[in-house]
Amino acid sequence: MPPKKKNKYANAPARGFATTSIPKAKPMVVEPEPEPEPIVETAPPPTSDADQTKSSAAEDEEPEDEFVSLAERLEGLSLKKVDAFLGQTQKINVDTLPVLKMENNLENSVLALLKEVEAKDAGAFKANVYLNNDQMVAKLNVTYLALLRLGFEKEDIEEALRHTYTGESEDALDWLCLHLDSEKLPRGFADKLYHDEEMKISVHASQPYAPSLPDSATMSLPATRQEQERNTPEPLPVQEQVLASAPATIEKAWILQAALAENSDEEAEDPNERYVNYRMTLTELTQALAETEVPADRKAITRKIDTLNSKVNDLDIDFTFNKKLAESMLKQRIIEDKKKAKKSKRKKEKEQEALKKATPATGEDDGSDMLGTMWDLEGGSAPAPDGASGDQEHSIKRRQMANPSWSGGSPKVVLAEFCRKKDRHSKVAYKKASRSTPTAAMAIVTVTWGSGSISSAGMTDEGCENMAEAENYVATKLLYELTPLPLYRSLPPTYRDLWLEWIDEKESAGRMAKKAVDGDRLSFIKTLAAKIPSRGNGEVADATEQAEEQGRDSDAQKDKEIVITPAGKALQQSWHQRLKRPAHIKLFEKRRELPIYQFRNQLLRLLGSSQVLIVSGETGCGKSTQVPQYLAEFMLEEGLGDQCDIVCTQPRRISAISIANRVSEELGDSRNSAGKPNTLVGYQIRLESRVAPSNILKFCTTGILLRRLESDKTLKGVTHLVIDEVHERTLESDFLLIILKKLLPHRPDLKIILMSATVDSARFSEYFNGCPVLEVPGRTFPVHAQFLEDAIDVTGYTLEEDSEYAVRFRKDIQSKGSVDVAGKGASRQTVYLQWENDMGDYTPGQEAETKMVIGDDDFLQGPALVNRTQQMLNRIDENKINYDLIQALLEYICFPQDRRLQQRATAPETSAPIPDQGAILIFLPGMPEIRKLFDALKVNRRFGDASQFSLWPLHSSISSEGQSQVFDVPPAGIRKIVMATNIAETGITIPDVTIVIDTGKSKQIKFDEKKRVTTLQERFVAKANARQRRGRAGRVQEGVCFHLFSRATFEEYMPEYQMPEIMRMPLEELCLMIKMCELGEITEILRSALDAPPVKAIENAIQALQDVRALTKSEELTPLGIHLCNLPVDVHIGKMILFGSIFKCLDPILTIAAMLSFKSPFVTPFGAENEADAAKARFKLADSDMLTWYNAYLGWRKAYQEDKPSRIYDYCRKNFLSHQNLTMMEDMKKQFLGFLVGTGFVRVDAETKRELSRGERFGGGRGISFCPVIPEYNVYQRSIPVLNAAITAGMYPKVMMRHDGLKAYVTGPRQDTVWIHPSSVNFAKGGATAAAAMSGPDQSPWFVFNSLVKSTRMYVWESGRIGQFPLVLFGGELAVKHHAKLITVDKWIQFKCHAKTAVVFKMMRDELDKILQKRIDEPERGTTEREERWLEMIVAILEGEDDSLRIEDKAGHQRHKDQNVFMA
């Protein structure tokens, strides 16, 4: 059949009978005088048409009730939002999820602590000031309705809203779960003994359309009808059916009958029309529920509501259903119904007036009966049955229903046709009502259905002129009750209007019910919303005021007049006295010999006319020491010394110290007195500050200046800023240039000088708006460049094919399985086809290709010497540092007699002249290489002789004590050998160097895209760096440089310049610094850099910071982010270190952090894989690679401390450990601890602080200096759950799960499949299925990992098993779905958890954030008593998840495969 049209009421024609108007308020009931016989009510005296029109207009314009109007405005959107909120988790089957529970005693303890903390901290929830009053009212209304629907009591809801202030449903639910006893919470919200049965209830019980709906939980809409067909086992007589409703009002009985009716078989085919009908009927049912008190009726109505709600939900799967269109149709239906009702009411008034004029009054009438009778029902006065007193008979009204001109079917005909179509066995019968009188005929109609059920309708308070009209009246009434179809359109006009009148009356009853239902709630909400602060302009005003203040400061600085003060004159006189000292005069003469001196006046003149100046000076020109001095001298000579504050930055600590001491001495201070009272020069580096009030010139590292800019945005008081070595393009220096460019307009009095040896002056000048450039030539002697082939030639170095420095044929055979290899005596050995770096192995450089080995030594023909040199060149591996060749070169350089013997056997004319005097500078990539060469030379018979050689390591991490001797010329007969990193390229100058040995390597920080980790990789330097190193040999005389790479490598593979760090490093640290300095939006700031990084790299950095919760979604710093700013390490490592400090397991976490930042302590020699795996298995701990590493470290440390240090190599060889790697990790641990001490996060005594600031020491047989283990920060260093929690806090979101359904490991929201790498202790042949069988069902399926590398598969490296609690407490964004018993972490990690327990976890996370914030605000105060209680509580919860994981210290080294035992 075709779809039906919309249900629209037809316009009613003019009526010619009396009617009753509906007043806005319930009138006062006037008791009439008793009469012996029923009296038909007649119309009152006639009124004028003008009065009638005025009365109707006034009624139309009468304002609606405030709360009813507010309810109508909010109802549609509110109910929709409530449905959306409660239906968020319908598609999740929580019964299939792992259950998250907490022991009752622990949960009660946490709740008690939370309530105690809340009592002290009033206002735990902050008001939502971003909403205006109307928005807050709407939000509070949605929350109120949602909580009612969930089953909370009205009083509890209002108490929760008073305490939360946000209007958010989640906040209110959190408060309710924390403060209500379990027995007061709805089902499913708490996991207690008396709720044992609740876990068997379907999750549908907590879904939006719950069967038990409180009276006040709905908002009424204009009402419609539904078909009534009520099944009764024993049909009652018609009279008894009518009398059954006597205790209640007739109107309420109608509503109840409609609520219990069944749906019509004829439903609209259009799903949008069905939606409108369902919603209108739902509104009628909710009204009926609010007015019905009989439990059986309420249950039936609730069942009906559930059925309709289910049908509404089913519409979503119909592709023709348009929710937006259906809502629009619903609103239109409501508007049309209202218009029809008002129009009907006006017409009824007109008919009433006409009736009054035509019929004279039969008795006294004060007018109240006519207007009040209908509302007597609302007031509770029910009509009496037949035989009642005359008081009730007096209320019968007579109604004219004649339609003389109507030619269509009567209501009786329509009812008969309707019943026949519905049930062909139905019978319709009419009878006279017992209360019928000659003046007011009343009838009853009864329909007996084929099933035996009966439907009936009667007349109670109205009568007609004759019985025919009365029968049509009751036929119309029964039709109205039986069907929602618009059958009134086919009825005569008077009966049509009667039908519309009933609709109007029901709407009015609904409005009154709405007021009763919604009034109290909305009144409370409006009162509460008025008390909550709304959106304000305070922040805008503060920002404007701050901007104006900065503008005033800028203008004041610009217009500031230079005034010479008495203090400035005193410093001027003191300076003049210094100039007369003999020592100063002698040093000044040496200074005049530097090339930069010729440009002194030009430099000062350019700086006077420009705010920024670039000084591009070649090596040896003296710019680093002289330019800052020229500025200080100028200010002192002008009498402005007291107004002078010159800051000079250096990229490294040792550069800042050495240059500060040198400049201090040249300015007339005592030697090595920088930073002392009454000196002019001071310096400040990490963990060491030597600055006095008299210092007018201060040297510092770039990082120190950036830290100052975090708190001092405009560098108040600084007059000159000198940035040295900008050519290195470090991350910090490029970021500093960004800040300075933004700072220049606000500090017009600040002078900036950029200095470098090989600066791209044009680019820098353009970046600073075309600032002037001063080119200064260098002062160097010629340097002879020798390459690898020359070194092989002059030393006669020979390399065997099986040497560790020779090129080998290798293939990448990772994860290819294993093969059986036959050996002697019919023996067989299983060899894994997997390659892992052994001790001291290298990472091949990307810039240089590995050369192929020429196997035949006779392949090259020609002179024997050329053949041998070329063979060695082809055989040697340039990617490895050849320590044997370095020692051979040193012997060739330092022992002329050996050199002369060598020259007789070679071609002396091809070798460069070797200076017999001067220091030897060896460039090495990093500290491990320096240590290895230093140890090798110490044990060398020749170079270990202190009477002939002085060995000096030079590295930024080495103690500054005695470093000054590196720059001194040794006594005659002693030759100085300095082993340094690229710090000696340009940052510092060793004046007596004549020979340089350059390995051509440096350690460069690079972000590994595959592993998603930051690594320190060994790579070839750029050509510009190689030339800088070469130039160091020509400072005092003609020199020579041996480059230990071939000429072809230099010319073909090395880049011209080194790539800026901002282009190759992760940007997380830089993003944090941008937010700390409050520079603005991250992407915009980084795009303004000299070399802007890729947008993708910026986005990845921001996402990584948000993953670790260092930044919010709006890119605002969190407390954790502020701390990570102070830790110059990878953000994951930094976060792990912070949590290791907080949870008092610092030493193991520092050890694990160092290993993850460097290398594994284990080595796997080629061919000994089985033995290496067995050795690793002896250290296995808690199914964790990280804890296994730490266990191996404990064994190594114990062996070193308890046994002879000389036997440590035997221990390492036996257990396949790298002593070199472990020693390097110990140094890194001390650096990490130094960062924590420097930021105040860890408090130590003065002696420990001095020990950390001294750094690494060499020589003297002192051995390894272990990192201090501070007892108060290592209380839980043997608690595996606490260690796993700290690791999880740092590594998250690097989490995977063993999915037993998929029989694989999965990670991330997309459930990507990953595999555990065979090198892990968690690797099992057979994958996740075998691992599940080995671990058992009780073991946690969750793992945390460090890196993800894709080769033949997506492999997880360095993994560790963790519990559920660390994920919930330290994972990502935590969401609690209270009503669904669901808790999620970043939406993809899901657990079934009762709301009360879930809120406990949520509040504990909030307390952790507060602890971090407190550490930021007051780092020097340490942990408070409250924080200690919380930390102890969290530790107890972590250890309570699995008591078997709690390990105490155990003596000895006996181990069991099922036990977790620490090695020390």
From TrEMBL:
<comment type="similarity">
    <text>Belongs to the DEAD box helicase family. DEAH subfamily.</text>
</comment>
<feature type="domain" description="Helicase C-terminal">
    <location>
        <begin position="900"/>
        <end position="1078"/>
    </location>
</feature>
<dbReference type="InterPro" id="IPR015940">
    <property type="entry name" value="UBA"/>
</dbReference>
<feature type="region of interest" description="Disordered">
    <location>
        <begin position="338"/>
        <end position="409"/>
    </location>
</feature>
<keyword id="KW-0067">ATP-binding</keyword>
<dbReference type="GO" id="GO:0003743">
    <property type="term" value="F:translation initiation factor activity"/>
</dbReference>
<dbReference type="GO" id="GO:0016787">
    <property type="term" value="F:hydrolase activity"/>
</dbReference>
<dbReference type="GO" id="GO:0003724">
    <property type="term" value="F:RNA helicase activity"/>
</dbReference>
<dbReference type="Pfam" id="PF00271">
    <property type="entry name" value="Helicase_C"/>
</dbReference>
<dbReference type="Pfam" id="PF00270">
    <property type="entry name" value="DEAD"/>
</dbReference>
<keyword id="KW-0963">Cytoplasm</keyword>
<feature type="compositionally biased region" description="Low complexity">
    <location>
        <begin position="379"/>
        <end position="390"/>
    </location>
</feature>
<dbReference type="InterPro" id="IPR011709">
    <property type="entry name" value="DEAD-box_helicase_OB_fold"/>
</dbReference>
<keyword id="KW-0175">Coiled coil</keyword>
<feature type="compositionally biased region" description="Polar residues">
    <location>
        <begin position="215"/>
        <end position="225"/>
    </location>
</feature>
<protein>
    <recommendedName>
        <fullName>RNA helicase</fullName>
        <ecNumber>3.6.4.13</ecNumber>
    </recommendedName>
</protein>
<feature type="domain" description="UBA">
    <location>
        <begin position="132"/>
        <end position="179"/>
    </location>
</feature>
<feature type="region of interest" description="Disordered">
    <location>
        <begin position="536"/>
        <end position="557"/>
    </location>
</feature>
<dbReference type="GO" id="GO:0003723">
    <property type="term" value="F:RNA binding"/>
</dbReference>
<dbReference type="InterPro" id="IPR027417">
    <property type="entry name" value="P-loop_NTPase"/>
</dbReference>
<keyword id="KW-0547">Nucleotide-binding</keyword>
<dbReference type="GO" id="GO:0005524">
    <property type="term" value="F:ATP binding"/>
</dbReference>
<dbReference type="InterPro" id="IPR056890">
    <property type="entry name" value="UBA_DHX29-like"/>
</dbReference>
<dbReference type="Pfam" id="PF26026">
    <property type="entry name" value="RNA_hel_CTD"/>
</dbReference>
<feature type="domain" description="Helicase ATP-binding">
    <location>
        <begin position="604"/>
        <end position="777"/>
    </location>
</feature>
<dbReference type="InterPro" id="IPR011545">
    <property type="entry name" value="DEAD/DEAH_box_helicase_dom"/>
</dbReference>
<feature type="region of interest" description="Disordered">
    <location>
        <begin position="207"/>
        <end position="235"/>
    </location>
</feature>
<keyword id="KW-0378">Hydrolase</keyword>
<dbReference type="InterPro" id="IPR001650">
    <property type="entry name" value="Helicase_C-like"/>
</dbReference>
<dbReference type="InterPro" id="IPR007502">
    <property type="entry name" value="Helicase-assoc_dom"/>
</dbReference>
<dbReference type="Pfam" id="PF24899">
    <property type="entry name" value="UBA_DHX29"/>
</dbReference>
<dbReference type="InterPro" id="IPR014001">
    <property type="entry name" value="Helicase_ATP-bd"/>
</dbReference>
<dbReference type="Pfam" id="PF07717">
    <property type="entry name" value="OB_NTP_bind"/>
</dbReference>
<keyword id="KW-0396">Initiation factor</keyword>
<dbReference type="InterPro" id="IPR059023">
    <property type="entry name" value="RNA_hel_CTD"/>
</dbReference>
<feature type="region of interest" description="Disordered">
    <location>
        <begin position="1"/>
        <end position="65"/>
    </location>
</feature>
<keyword id="KW-0347">Helicase</keyword>
<dbReference type="Pfam" id="PF21010">
    <property type="entry name" value="HA2_C"/>
</dbReference>
<keyword id="KW-0648">Protein biosynthesis</keyword>
